[in-house]
Amino acid sequence: MKYTFISGIPASGKSYLARKIAKETGIKHICIDDWREEMKDDPELKKWIDFYWNQDEKEYWCTTSCDQQWENLKKQSEAFWPTILERIKEIQKSGMSAIFEGVNILPHLAHQDLNFQGIILLGESLEKILESNKQDPRWGNTEELQIKEAEAFWNCERPRYKLEAEKYGFKTFADSNEAEKVLLKLLR
After folding, report:
1. How far lies 21's CA from each of 82, 144, 161, in Å?
2. Ramachandran bin of 117, using left for φ above 0, alpha for ψ from -120 to 50, beta for the remaining angles
3. Where are the chain's structural domains?
4. Any alpha helices (H) in the chain, and if so which ranges?
5. What's the CA gap between 2 and 115, in Å, rounded?
6. pLDDT tens column, 117-138
7. For residue 94, what are the contacts with CB-CB under 8 A and spacing of at least 6?
8. Considering the entire predicted model, what is its pTM?
9. Homologous superfamily, domain 3-186
10. Distance between the two ends of the chain, CA-based, in angstroms?
């Protein structure tokens, strides 16, 4: 069976690319974010499921440093990781080929526990990230907050994903067409 993953900053095109490759190859697309609903039942994880929604978004983006934003994402991902890893292993045991996609597949976690390769999407531009945020708001319901969120993804999370990916040997991409070629090779 074949497995790969797509991680990277929010609004970088992970879901779009995973759906496209799944359609081309017949491999199952697994969106890690879909598992969050089930994680809500675990009191240990509920804090991280609701973490961002329990914040005042404007205050969060204005007062939280890039380092702290990355630490929050790391803590959330590490809290979710045992559940994510368990579900990935269940899918592998079933013998179903899959492409796993989500922001919480951080490079250090993938390197530590996954026995297959993947890629990190970094987004094409701040403008594209903002455009995606406006089309499908994640948190901010005003343009001002959507801009702040896009800037945080681009200016804060993007360089940290890139640095961590390079440290653990995962390829990074701004161009989803180039990423698609590499993912298709991984699935052959």
Report:
1. 26, 34, 22
2. beta
3. 3-186
4. 14-25, 36-39, 43-49, 57-63, 66-94, 107-113, 126-135, 143-151, 158-168, 176-186
5. 11
6. 999 999 999 999 999 988 887 7
7. none
8. 0.94
9. P-loop containing nucleotide triphosphate hydrolases (3.40.50.300)
10. 10
